[in-house]
Design a protein that fits this description.
Elements (H helix, E strand, L loop, with lengths): L1 H6 L7 H41 L16 H9 L12 H13 L2 H24 L12 H7 L1 H49 L8 H54 L1 E2 L5 E2 L8
Antiparallel strand pairs: 1-2
Helix pairs in contact: 2-5, 2-7, 4-7, 5-7
């Protein structure tokens, strides 16, 4: 190996595909991990900024709409949990946290980094198979050292795959720590800023008298609309229930003539259907 490096013939030797492919695979993993960590770090910083804004008397959602596509979860929360509504949303706390996990898991760089943990051992197998091309076996008797040098491409392929798999696990651990940190920060912000109001139904403390009156009128109108909808459904059910006897009567009127034709009546007025008799 040292002779190849000094002589400059490494590009034409058996080490060329092993070093080239392994180095490219390693650099791709590093780039994916750094890119994913920078993205999650940016999301965590934005959530911490919103938490500081809330602790200083703000609403904790200032400037979310101006954020880019990298902060899709924050925009999803603001859209589905409006600040001017205190009635229960169509989504729960578990739905919001599951949406966060879904968006994290669907990140392309994170997905590819996970897939490369399986690709690394397979890459070692491919390099081992490709090493047979440079395997030179002479017909004369050879020493053990010569044989080991001859099978070096095969051993180097397996070793490269194993080393890349270990590096991938280290990078996944680093990315996983960033994910858990983002989850904790996002969960704390959501519970403090959003769910504390929706879960308890309490109003924000910075509302004016006109806003309180508007909220009261809006809540009363919502309750009246729900009550009218309930009464309308109850009326529809009552009409349907009252129409059932007439429907049953019409069904019986259609069925009775065929029943009378199929049988005869005895002296008491009951319908009697003759049983079939078998020939003796």
């Amino acid at each position: 190996m040292a002779n190849l490096l000094t002589s400059g013939d490494i590009l034409s030797s058996e080490w060329a595909p092993v070093i080239g492919v392994g180095l490219v695979f390693f650099l791709v993993q590093i780039v994916l991990c750094i890119s994913f960590c920078f993205r999650t770090r940016g999301q965590e910083r934005a959530i911490k900024r919103l938490s500081r804004d809330f602790s200083q008397g703000g609403d904790g959602k200032n400037g979310v709409q101006s954020l880019g596509r990298k902060h899709a979860w924050l925009q999803w929360v603001v859209f589905n949990f409006p600040a001017n509504v205190t009635s229960p949303s169509n989504f729960t706390r578990e739905d919001a946290l599951q949406e966060l996990d879904t968006q994290i898991a669907s990140n392309g760089n994170y997905l590819l980094l996970q897939r490369m943990s399986v690709m690394a051992p397979l890459l070692g197998v491919v390099l081992t198979v490709a090493g047979f091309y440079w395997l030179h076996v002479g017909g004369e008797d050879q020493s053990l050292q010569t044989i080991l040098l001859a099978v070096t491409p095969l051993v180097s392929g397996v070793g490269t795959g194993a080393v890349l798999a270990l590096i991938n696990q280290v990078l996944l651990h680093i990315a996983g720590r960033r994910v858990e940190s983002l989850r904790m920060t996002a969960r704390t912000w959501f519970d403090t800023v959003v769910w504390s109001r929706y879960g308890s139904g309490a109003l924000p403390t910075n509302l004016t008298a006109s806003q309180l009156m508007e909220h009261f009128v809006r809540s009363a109108l919502d309750d009246m609309n729900r009550l009218s909808d309930t009464l309308a459904h109850a009326a529809e059910i009552s009409v349907a229930m009252s129409a059932l006897p007439s429907q049953f009567r019409r069904i019986l009127d259609r069925k009775l003539p065929t029943t009378h034709n199929a049988g005869t009546t005895d002296q008491s007025g009951r319908v009697v259907t003759p049983l079939p008799r078998t020939a003796r």
